[in-house]
């Protein structure tokens, strides 16, 4: 890994630790830089702001592990594969905890960008719609809407459930609730 890559990873890791320990608003860029002994120039080489850093922490890049892929592929039912793929996105969105999820939504609200953005993820952009269409063709999904419309609805449901989970302080099983809502939408057989 290059020094720049190592620095970026160090900044991300250190920032996350500091945010979790002191809270997002209480941590400064100077604190992050001092903690890992890098210059502010090095920080700004990778991130324009703390908000951009949060967006990177929640990015979909390299989020699917081999275990996640095996989990999706272990199921032969296309509808279940589509739901498992969406669950990976939900799991990824909430993996950093309630407070960081709130910050992520705050940033997305301010920038008017949906947290689950099809243009930023091949999983959302092409894989899940293909799985939904295959499930529809196999009669596993009864909702007559197009695969694209169903995916858009799944993204809206996931965003709503995740946001509610964050507002409620993580007081319910977000994956279970999301799966339940997906099943209702898709009218799964």
Automatic annotation (TrEMBL):
Which InterPro entries does the UniProt entry name for this protein?
DNA-bd_HTH_TetR-type_CS, Homeodomain-like_sf, HTH-type_Tx_Regulator, HTH_TetR
Q: Which GO terms describe its molecular function?
A: DNA binding
Residues of the HTH tetR-type domain: 5-65
| Keywords carried by this UniProt record | DNA-binding
Q: Which residues bind DNA?
A: 28-47
What is the superkingdom listed in this entry's lineage? Bacteria
The regions listed as transmembrane in this protein's record are none
Record's protein name = TetR/AcrR family transcriptional regulator
Q: What is the lineage of its organism?
A: Bacteria, Bacillati, Bacillota, Bacilli, Bacillales
């Amino acid at each position: 890994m290059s020094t720049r890559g190592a620095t970026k990873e160090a900044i991300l890791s250190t920032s996350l630790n500091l945010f979790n320990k002191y809270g997002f608003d209480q941590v400064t860029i100077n604190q992050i830089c001092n903690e890992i002994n890098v210059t502010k120039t090095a920080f700004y080489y990778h991130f324009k702001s703390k908000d951009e850093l949060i967006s990177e922490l929640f990015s979909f890049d390299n989020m699917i592990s081999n275990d996640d892929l095996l989990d999706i592929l272990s199921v032969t039912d296309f509808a279940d594969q589509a739901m498992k793929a969406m669950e990976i996105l939900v799991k990824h969105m909430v993996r950093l905890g309630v407070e960081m999820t709130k910050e992520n939504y705050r940033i997305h609200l301010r920038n008017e960008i949906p947290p689950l953005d099809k243009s930023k993820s091949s999983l959302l952009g092409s894989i899940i719609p293909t799985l939904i269409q295959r499930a529809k063709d196999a009669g596993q999904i009864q909702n007559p809407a197009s695969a694209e419309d169903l995916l858009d609805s799944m993204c809206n449901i996931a965003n709503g459930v995740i946001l509610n989970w964050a507002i409620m302080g993580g007081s319910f099983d977000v994956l279970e609730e999301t799966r339940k809502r997906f099943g209702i939408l898709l009218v799964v057989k």
